[in-house]
Amino acid sequence: MAARGTPVWLEVALNGPWGPAKQPRAPYSIADCVAEGIACARAGAAVIHVHAFDPDSGRQSDDWRTYARIIEGVRAEVDAIVYPTLPFNGAEGHGGGLSVQARYAHTVELARRGLIEWSVVDPGTVHIADLAGVAADRPGFTYSNPEDHAREGLRLAAEYGFHPGYAIYEPGFLRFGAALAARYADAPQAVYRLMFSDRFSFGYPPRSYALDAYRALLADCAPGAPWMIAGLQVDLRALIPEAVAAGGHVRVGLEDAPLGLDIRNPALAEEAAGLIQAAGGRPASAAEIRAALETPPRSPI
To answer: What superfamily in CATH does domain 6-292 come from?
Structure first.
């Protein structure tokens, strides 16, 4: 068990690329994303991750202005680290073969305005298939992150001072991400999100042996780097006590949860905060996370 009162970072991923047909309880409008981000922060989440959507088509739309309205709306009420996604390159309906400039266009605009502290930089490409869909011959998709895209993310992180958020879908992502972090030593500390799944084909299921394997690899490749458990189509509740005891952090939310879950993000945040406390930790504040990452305090909106 973690030392009583150890600060544990709690992140909530509000929606993901799924859209209302697949994850109907997630927020998609600007107003709903702002309201749920605020509610999650008040439930203990100091980090909020969000995908922006076009209200007319219902599809993901990575316009920096939409992200700015969400970020400013949340931060006007609570102190939280709010950060956007990248286009899910290769996923059906979300763009394929996007140029590196197109993928990071909104990141650059938000960073220029001092609106982001973290941003997604995923160090690797992975095929993602629904395990139940394999038997039914429903094809999956390839989430594409060419090397020049990952390198550009680290270059931008160094230029603008935001923390790269690595999604570690496979062990090789961790090794390559650590090598990139060493190459781009001027970039701020990367945060390693260890991605698990119950229903998708990538990586590991949320099991103790899998967490142990990732922790051993982190110790070899990125000793001392901050990490958290996360995933897609996954229930992480049983793994939270082990992660907290091992010095890790936690991400939940309707991006990561099984599709069709009949619950909203604030309830997921409140439940995760309770599990963190039961394991001996407590949800960290945004100020504590910044201090741990040696990030200067953000300017008020």
So the answer is: Aldolase class I (3.20.20.70)
